[in-house]
Amino acid sequence: MVKVTYVTHDGRAQEIDAREGISLMENAVAGGIEGIEAVCGGNAYCATCRVYPDPAWDTKLGERNDLEAPMLEEVGEAESNARLSCQIEVTAALEGLVVNLPESQT
After folding, report:
1. Predicted local distance difference test score (pLDDT) of residue 104
2. pLDDT at position 48, please?
3. Which is it for strands 97-100 and 2-7: parallel, antiparallel or unpaired?
4. Which site from 13, 20, 69, 76 is most exposed, i.e. has the minimal number of CB atoms within 10 Å?
5. What would the DSSP string read from start to end of the chain?
6. Which residues pair with 23 in a beta bridge?
7. Would you state the pLDDT for residue 13?
8. Which pLDDT value is given to residue 45?
9. Calpha distance 71→59 (Å, rounded)
10. Are 8 and 51 in contact (CB under 8 A)?
11. Which residues contact 9 (CB under 8 A, 6 or more apart)?
12. Torsions phi, psi of 58, nearest 5?
């Protein structure tokens, strides 16, 4: 298990033991994280699983994939570190990851 902390817009931290091999979004849903809606179930069609990882994690998270950028643009996401949590697979390298959540996913 990999410790991941999701921080709500109002500063509440929710730490879970995330399973490797599945996405941050799937782990958030399984862990009952408030603020991850995941309306499309991980198909990168809705951007209701947006997170803002600290840029220090960029190397371990990798670049946005071809599905993320257009979807984030479509919903008007202006933050340069915004990612779709459904497109980030949890690995041991993400131990201790902290991601911030937007005020609203809709």
Report:
1. 87
2. 94
3. parallel
4. 76
5. -EEEEEE-TTS-EEEEEEPTTSBHHHHHHHTT-TT---TTSSSSSS-TTEEEE-GGGHHHH----TTHHHHHHHTT---TT-EEGGG-B--GGGTTEEEE--S---
6. 89
7. 96
8. 87
9. 22
10. no
11. 35, 100, 101, 102, 103
12. -50, -45
At residue 105, the pLDDT reads 86
Which token pair is 22?
């599945």
Look at residue 42 in the predicted model and tell me its pLDDT: 87
Residues in the chain, overall count: 106
From 20, 31, 25, select the one nearest 48 (Cα to Cα). 25
| Successive 10-residue mean pLDDT values, the chain, 106 residues | 96 97 97 92 90 92 91 87 96 97 87
CA distances (Å), origin 102, targets 6, 59, 80, 82, 83? 11, 22, 13, 9, 11
Instruction: Kindly give, in sequence order, each residue whose CB lies less than 8 Å from that of residue 46, ignoring residues fewer than 6 positions away.
Output: 37, 38, 39, 40, 71
